[in-house]
Amino acid sequence: MVDLNFIISPDYIGYYIARSVFLSISTLLIIGIGYLLFATGYLKMRWLESLVTFFFERPYGASGILQKWRQINRYAESDSVSKQKLAVMEAENLLDKTLKRLGYEGDNIEERLEQVPKGKIGNLNEIKIAHELRNDIAYDPDYQLQKEEVKEALGIYEKALQDLEVI
Fold first, then answer.
1. Do 102 and 59 meet the contact criterion of CB atoms below 8 Å apart?
2. Tell me, what's the pLDDT at 47?
3. For a surface tag, which of 10, 17, 69, 149 has the fewest beta carbons within 10 Å of its beta carbon?
């Protein structure tokens, strides 16, 4: 027969209590870390981002970009010159934010565009021309913007966003 007296020995009881305390603390810490990760939304966001990218074959947040692009087109179709100017500025801002989200670093859109691999965006030179138009609008409040310029600039930005596969 097996002698089980060692279970009630003082040495074993101390070991059992210490083990139970550390196991309890470890379990509470792991549960706390898990709770914080879910409460902050970090894991949920990463998981959702991965699923959207996998199933829809487009970057996470692309639907928001598409909604923003529709709003920009509504501005461009307006008869108001100020809304047309806003459309050009917002289109460049959308491209800039998209480049940031895709991981291109730099202080401004020009620096980010330099980091884009050749062939990724087919109309880099045209984007620079549209950027000059945007600067004219931003820095000259009396700039006389023509509707054709708006359509041309938005076409350039739209092509770039299509090349980046966000619209």
1. yes
2. 74
3. 10
* CB burial of residue 163 (10 Å; 0-12, 13-18, 19+): middle
pLDDT for the residue numbered 148 = 94
- Contacts with 100 (C-beta within 8 Å, 6 or more apart), sequence order: 112
130 CB burial (10 A radius; 0-12, 13-18, 19+): buried
Rounded Cα distance between 38 and 58, Å, is: 25
Q: How many residues in total does the chain contain?
A: 167
User: What is the maximum alpha-carbon separation in the chain?
Assistant: 102
Answer yes or no: pTM beyond 0.90.
Answer: no
Instruction: Please state, in angstroms and rounded to a whole number, the distance separating the CA atoms of residues 14 and 71.
Output: 69
Count of alpha carbons within 13 angstroms of residue 164, beta-carbon side: 29
**Phi and psi angles of residue 49, each rounded to the nearest 5 degrees, phi first:** -60, -45
Segments of the chain with pLDDT less than 50 = none
Contact 59, 53 (CB under 8 A): yes
Q: For position 108, what pLDDT does the model report?
A: 92
